[in-house]
Amino acid sequence: MAIRQKSDKKRASLLNATMKLVNNQGFHAAPMSKIAKMAEMSPATIYIYFENKQDLINQLYLEVKASFSAFAFKNYNEETCVKESFKQIWFNIANFKINQVEEANFLSQCDNAPIIDEEIKREGLKHLQPLVDLWERGKNEQILKPISPYLMYAFSIYPLAFLTNSHYKKGCEINDERIHVAFNVAWDSIKL
Amino acid sequence: MAIRQKSDKKRASLLNATMKLVNNQGFHAAPMSKIAKMAEMSPATIYIYFENKQDLINQLYLEVKASFSAFAFKNYNEETCVKESFKQIWFNIANFKINQVEEANFLSQCDNAPIIDEEIKREGLKHLQPLVDLWERGKNEQILKPISPYLMYAFSIYPLAFLTNSHYKKGCEINDERIHVAFNVAWDSIKL
Amino acid sequence: MAIRQKSDKKRASLLNATMKLVNNQGFHAAPMSKIAKMAEMSPATIYIYFENKQDLINQLYLEVKASFSAFAFKNYNEETCVKESFKQIWFNIANFKINQVEEANFLSQCDNAPIIDEEIKREGLKHLQPLVDLWERGKNEQILKPISPYLMYAFSIYPLAFLTNSHYKKGCEINDERIHVAFNVAWDSIKL
Amino acid sequence: MAIRQKSDKKRASLLNATMKLVNNQGFHAAPMSKIAKMAEMSPATIYIYFENKQDLINQLYLEVKASFSAFAFKNYNEETCVKESFKQIWFNIANFKINQVEEANFLSQCDNAPIIDEEIKREGLKHLQPLVDLWERGKNEQILKPISPYLMYAFSIYPLAFLTNSHYKKGCEINDERIHVAFNVAWDSIKL
DNA sequence: GATGAATGAGTCTTCATTCAT
DNA sequence: AATGAATGAAGACTCATTCAT
Prior knowledge:
Shape of chain A: elongated
Oligomer: homotetramer
Number of domains of chain A: 2
CATH topology of the largest domain in chain A: Tetracycline Repressor, domain 2
Radius of gyration of chain A: 19 Å
Order of helices and strands of chain A: HHHHHHHHHHH
Number of strands of chain A: 0
């Protein structure tokens, strides 16, 4: 009979407003007053749900990161061969970045600017363990190069951020064919 | 009628202070007052050298980007074979990111957060044309995959940002051997 | 869900402080910080009650002008003869200028320096219509000269500003006798 | 063989620039830097010609007031009858206000806002003595009402400020006929 | 004399946060 | 829980004036 008086809806509304504002104008253009207005409540109410602004940002980061990770492993079946498994995850991530533009944008901003506490960032990384495990399996099966997961990530996953960013900014449109080409490039980089 | 002239030293001092502050705490934690203090002058003096804060940031971006580009094409000889040419540029960029940590860090922050005016960003991109030309040559000589420069960049150059970032944050140290491994991965991704 | 409400007292306190400062030292010597201090609140609080400094000044002008107009037509009875009616209004205005020195001073400063938005000024003028109507009646009854209201105002009302100003600055003291003399001069100027 | 190294031209240029700026936007929008720019010299140079900003404004006031007074008594002949003498001066003043709009505007702003030191203001008033003397003569000759010069001024001269101001702001255009009507009103107010 | 650079003090305004209800 | 008012500290930027040549 736990009393949940704080409404999840309000919390979500706040997180959402924050993400939108940070995305559009940057962290320094997302004051608490604007966040409150966009979420249709008083600035004072924010402090019922979050300790302060940094806490709000941190929690937003964790939430988005979690949602990203969940998406990344959708339909992921550890039983299939390494390439198929990797392909599934890779396309999941690509689709996330293409379709959940707001979330992807926000994550890439947080990952490159010092706005999230390092401790929180580390916490957000844990979810990717299954991918690291997959790479380990690939190495054991001599399908993948014997390189560290950092290199794996840098050359096969990280480039997606650049591509979707370019897509978003109308530099280079992404379509179905191009995304398959991109996957092959990614695979070529890490396969033995 | 000799008079005190604007000193390049002061200008440079301001740009430098700005970069350091933006790097360490983010754009929103680099107020003009702190920049002035770090550059050892009055806040008012900044406005002799720059129109306003945005102008200061923009000019800093252009300057660092120019310095990066100059570095990228050091010892670049268009006569050598495609792979050698690419290798030269790739290692130049890698060395820049490893040794000029401040500059590299700053650029990656600017490229991922909405703090630089889009027009300025476009201006900063022009310098990379020789690399695009090289890729074109490689495609013609059927040494490189027939893919757009966006893909080329995403998979062969962009990953360096992740690697050096990880290095910087003590996640994954980079040494001479590892950097050569990384180059091979990069090359594998774009070569035919 | 009772909450603290904007208090009319604070608003009035701000308007009052502004008037006093502008009167004593001029518009350029009435910074928001001093206004706040005089009204005994934080500078930030001003912005809860007014959009910005110009808005504060504009609203003060309108308020004082309205109070002036209300005073001008006190005990004004349209039924009495033209001279009596005019006399009533004229003395009302004279008394306002003599007794409400602060208000009168402020208005005359605003009317001669470009500190109030023209649109606001026009709005503040509307209240004087009954006086214009009275002059029209006087002209029809062939009691007043057939001249425009601008001339009427310039020669019968506007001089009061000079007189009270001189009085205020100890140049020429105003007493009961003198004010009656002045009225006769005013009346001579506009009567047929 | 006095050395006049300071150039009168520069001084005049400064005074002129100041008047224009104060007129257009008010005292608070006439910073020394803008004055210097408009007068095409360095801000530092201003301090060779004037002690500080207040001194600059004060001297400008005195100069304009002197020019106004000189204009007021152009062709003034003490020998003619009181009405003719007064008429000459009155029209001189009217013409000044209509034609030297900048100067007139500036004076009326200074006379109504506390920007000129009181002492300086008193100094600027001395020049009008001949008019006061004329009024005295008129009183002795029983042509004018036995009232103080303050009242005389308030009702016969001061109204011109309102009229020309209205003219300037397109409220009530002044033409040759209207100005003669106005003179008659002025005369009616002070004549016995 | 003349000047562009330099600046401390100050301008208006905004912000993250707390208060009082 | 919820909130509009309130605020001290800080933000970017400007100003009258002085410095150094």
